[in-house]
Amino acid sequence: MTRLAIIGLGKMGRAVEQLAAAHGFDVVARIDTTGGDAHDVTAETLNGAEVAVEFTTPEAAPANIRVCAAARCPIVVGTTGWDARRPEVEEFVREVGGALLAAPNFSIGVAAFMMTVEAAADAMRAAPGFDVHLIETHHAQKKDAPSGTALAIARAASARLGREVPITSVRTGSVPGVHELVFDAPFEQIRLVHSARDRRVFAEGALRAAAWLVGRRGIFTLRDVLTTTKESAT
Question: CA within 20 to 30 Å of 137's CA: 9, 48, 153, 234, which one?
Fold first, then answer.
């Protein structure tokens, strides 16, 4: 079994821990500031992990990534909100020969959905008379609005459409996550929708990414997991 470190024991970290064994992982380190096996991420507290999965806070993520990279422990990061630090963190990972795979959403379906959005936006660029809008709905406890996933979808569509894609954010109930891209014209409409039914879909995606990342060096996204075979690891 692959030795796994879980950094952050919130809802996502606990979901990853629950599913780890079924995906071929042995959890050798549970690191969290409020509990677990250790409070801080160090080469020692990683406890020989071959890969780490990180769901913490925007303030903590950059330092956690640096420690893992320096320890040559590939790290999968689901924390969002640290984009301002991303260039310097990625440069450090490359310098020390580490491996980082970060994504705002670890649903494999969302990764495929992003590719579908890009193809649709390419086609719609030449279609006159269509307005475009992105609507994202999450549970009432979700703090960021728009979500990191919504921002990524909007950026991908905007780049191909050549115009801004506005976002409406809804926070209500216990919705794991729904993203809907609407192309609307006076007499017709196209709707692309991805709905997450359970938080475990994100944990499963993170574990799939972790298995893929073992043995690699560099900076990656979830799209690489879908489009690159394990045999091409470098």
Answer: 9
